[in-house]
């Protein structure tokens, strides 16, 4: 079945308003079914078994859940294409990862890294040409990029996180620690490292969180974290910003992959460097690789 433009526009408007698909009341005449219970997995696999190989069925995962891993793996076994915006299946165990990428021509996951930048496609082209990528450096979180820019301008971290932002497409108030922990960037780093052939897991990555463990979700409630915990972090982050400024540098939250090293965290960088010139939620990514002479690609 093909969805017409009217239906797709209604769908986009619904999601942009933050509403559930359950509230969809289409006037375009398209028949659809929203599965909300345990039958959804069974029905999806039944459809995949019927249409996977013969029709090139694609299973699309736009969730942020690890519960989709089993379905995606079964889809691969049934000859389906898999399309993912969800990073968690690709950052699960090596066994899960190997299954998902076992048919490279039937998987696409460009939006898992780099926002709108063609990071995955560019890296795959380099590797397909036979070149070896030795180093990847990037600022891969629009949220943390925005945070770093704002504290650089003198705003307290607590104010940056607690002030609603009308110009950026993210909000801290539901799950503020998801980004501030660095885990989202670590997942992106792991995806890139595995594309380079590194056989590593999340626990192999050195991750710098913007808050201590005593402010973790299993210790401190979200409201307490936003109202009180963040205030305790303001002084430390501002001191780091001021120290970097005295050296003519800025702070950026960076991913580095080089050899066996894979880490994410705050780095002090020259203002005129590609990462130092970043403002707001922009992303940047660069590689160093072997060709006839060593070259560098930046996005």
UniProtKB/TrEMBL annotation:
Alphabetized Gene3D superfamilies for the sequence: Dihydrodipicolinate Reductase, domain 2 (3.30.360.10), NAD(P)-binding Rossmann-like Domain (3.40.50.720)
A Gene Ontology BP annotation from the UniProt entry: threonine biosynthetic process
GO molecular function terms listed in the Swiss-Prot or TrEMBL record: homoserine dehydrogenase activity
InterPro entries assigned to the protein according to its UniProt record, in alphabetical order: Bifunc_Aspkin/hSer_DH, HDH_cat, NAD(P)-bd_dom_sf
Cofactor: a metal cation
Annotated Homoserine dehydrogenase catalytic domain residues: 118-294
Keywords: Amino-acid biosynthesis, Methionine biosynthesis, NADP, Oxidoreductase, Threonine biosynthesis
Biased composition (Polar residues): 283-299
Domain of life per record: Eukaryota
Top enzyme class: oxidoreductase
Recorded metabolic or biological pathway in which this protein acts: Amino-acid biosynthesis; L-methionine biosynthesis via de novo pathway; L-homoserine from L-aspartate: step 3/3; Amino-acid biosynthesis; L-threonine biosynthesis; L-threonine from L-aspartate: step 3/5
EC number(s) recorded for this UniProt protein: 1.1.1.3
Catalysis: reaction(s): L-homoserine + NADP(+) = L-aspartate 4-semialdehyde + NADPH + H(+)
Region (Disordered): 277-299
PANTHER family: HOMOSERINE DEHYDROGENASE, PTHR43070
Name of the protein in question: homoserine dehydrogenase
Top-level taxonomy: Eukaryota, Viridiplantae, Streptophyta, Embryophyta, Tracheophyta
């Amino acid at each position: 079945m093909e969805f017409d433009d009217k239906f797709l526009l209604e769908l986009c408007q619904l999601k942009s308003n933050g509403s559930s698909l359950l509230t969809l009341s289409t006037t375009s005449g398209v028949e659809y079914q929203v599965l909300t219970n345990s039958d959804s997995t069974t029905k999806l696999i039944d459809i995949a078994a019927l249409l996977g190989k013969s029709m090139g069925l694609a299973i699309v995962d736009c969730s942020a859940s690890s519960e989709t891993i089993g379905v995606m793996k079964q889809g691969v076994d049934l000859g389906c294409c898999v399309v993912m915006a969800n990073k968690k299946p690709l950052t699960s165990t090596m066994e899960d990862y190997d299954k998902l990428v076992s048919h490279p021509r039937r998987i696409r996951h460009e939006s898992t890294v780099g926002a709108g930048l063609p990071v995955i496609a560019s890296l795959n082209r380099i590797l397909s040409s036979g070149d070896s990528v030795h180093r990847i450096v990037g600022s891969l979180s629009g949220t943390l990029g925005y945070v770093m820019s704002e504290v650089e301008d003198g705003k307290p971290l607590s104010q940056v996180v607690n002030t609603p932002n009308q110009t950026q497409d993210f909000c801290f108030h539901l799950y503020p620690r998801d980004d501030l922990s660095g885990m989202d960037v670590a997942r992106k780093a792991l995806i890139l490292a595995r594309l380079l052939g590194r056989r590593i897991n999340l626990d192999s990555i050195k991750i710098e969180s913007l808050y201590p463990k005593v402010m973790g979700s299993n210790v401190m409630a979200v409201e307490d974290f936003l109202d009180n915990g963040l205030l305790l972090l303001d002084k430390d982050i501002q001191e780091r910003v001021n120290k970097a400024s005295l050296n003519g540098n800025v702070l950026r939250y960076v991913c580095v992959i080089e050899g066996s090293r894979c880490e994410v965290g705050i780095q002090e960088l020259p203002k005129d460097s590609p990462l130092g010139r970043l403002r707001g939620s922009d992303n940047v990514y660069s590689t160093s690789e072997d060709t006839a002479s060593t070259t560098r690609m930046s996005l």
